[in-house]
Amino acid sequence: MMAVIDLNCDMGEGSAVDAQLMPLMTSASIACGGHAGDEQTMRESIRLALTHGVSLGAHPSYPDREGFGRRAVRAAPDQVRADLAVQIQALATLASEAGAALRHVKPHGALYNQAMSDRALTEAIGAAVVDVDSSLIVVVLAGSPHARVLEDMGLRVAREAFIDRAYTAAGTLVSRDLPGAVITDAHYAAVRAVRMVRDGTTTAVDGTELNLRPDTLCIHSDTPGAVAIAQAVRTALREADVSIVALPEVMSDPGPRTPDPGLARPS
Predict the structure, then answer these.
(1) Are 247 and 135 in contact (CB under 8 A)?
(2) CA atoms within 13 A on the CB side of 160
(3) Over the chain (267 residues), what is each successive 10-residue block's mean pLDDT?
(4) Cα(144)–Cα(15) distance, rounded to whole angstroms?
(5) Among 163, 184, 207, 260, which is most buried by a count of CB atoms within 10 Å?
(6) Which one, of 163, 156, 120, 124, lies nearest residue 140 by Cα?
(7) Which pTM does this prediction carry?
(8) Strand partners, 138
(9) Could you tell me the domains of the chain?
(10) Kind of pairing between the strands at 3-11 and 137-141
């Protein structure tokens, strides 16, 4: 059976290349006021997505525009839930006005990463999604131990891998403050992407083999050379007989789904 994968990008964050990246994606996660974005940028991102037939998603975060949502924040779960619900609903309303609908929610930055190890935070994210629309797919880092928490809440969960970010042996992303954390070589990124999809694996910075089994691959719009990376990845995936489709189609694919075996791959 042909492998399928979604390509997603975080949009509406002030990148100058959104218009070039959008037609190369199948899903877009749009900033909705927490770390970036306002009504104007949300409307423009929705317009671009509709023009190119790209599936829409919300990209909410801690309300931290100064730190671009990438700083660790201590916030009560109830406050996180309320903040996220407001952001998701704002984008959902604008999408509806444009004749479109949201399909997924992908938390941003520190919120996304902290939820990997914080059950209460994961539950707050899930509750915010339920408050707005429980049919929305929630995107989490592949290998996240709390993906099951969201599934137990009745939500659909998509596992995400990052083409342009290095991994630690624990399956988390290498801090952006460290050398080599962001991958900018288009050819290398494309080779990684094919391996992530065809083999379900990638190699951490210390040589550890990680199981990922992603449903979607992310390219950041602020990665240097993001457009070239996206073009190289699309070409490589198609040459590897991988079908690139929007996230809702990936999630409805009737092919076998192997349960997540944990991050570390047996030697």
Answers:
(1) no
(2) 29
(3) 92 95 98 96 97 98 91 92 98 98 96 92 98 98 92 97 96 93 97 97 96 96 96 97 97 52 41
(4) 28
(5) 163
(6) 156
(7) 0.93
(8) 105, 157
(9) 3-251 (3.20.20.370)
(10) unpaired
